[in-house]
């Protein structure tokens, strides 16, 4: 059984951090299920692309069903899909609120519940969730109430899952980010965003990937909120 390749599900996998995680897990010999709302089929036979909105329970069920049909197991789930809407609190619309809760919370719940059920049957597994250090340390000039409401909830849920499933060999951790240089940030904003970090620069995708890979190997680590944020959570 030890010779059977492990299997990782990565949500939000079409670009940026998610695409970097797919490459990193493949480099470790994992088979990977890559999910995003819009993601092309993979040329790699050990990467299964499953398109669809993770906020839809039917999509989450399809991801798990197709994973088990093709690869037969689920060892790791990385909850990377998420959205961030920066608006003053009083300017959030009902649509903003619904979208943030749908992707950040419903998406997490839908896939994590199904993945952990399979991990229980296998006798173990690993869940990593990508959150934001704004939940620990709000920054003046960066309105983040919906991020704190949703991602802060994910940090709390991560600790609860870690305790609930510790004796069942299922670990749950989170990687809490500063601003990472991805396609979602226009180049003209980089200087301003870099100044939000005590280290004076943006984070790189590979630095997030390294943190997730550390948690993949850190078998005695569970319930941890690992900050990869250039010092933001420590202070300014």
TrEMBL record:
<dbReference type="InterPro" id="IPR036291">
    <property type="entry name" value="NAD(P)-bd_dom_sf"/>
</dbReference>
<dbReference type="InterPro" id="IPR002347">
    <property type="entry name" value="SDR_fam"/>
</dbReference>
<protein>
    <submittedName>
        <fullName>SDR family oxidoreductase</fullName>
    </submittedName>
</protein>
<dbReference type="Pfam" id="PF13561">
    <property type="entry name" value="adh_short_C2"/>
</dbReference>
<comment type="similarity">
    <text>Belongs to the short-chain dehydrogenases/reductases (SDR) family.</text>
</comment>
<keyword id="KW-0560">Oxidoreductase</keyword>
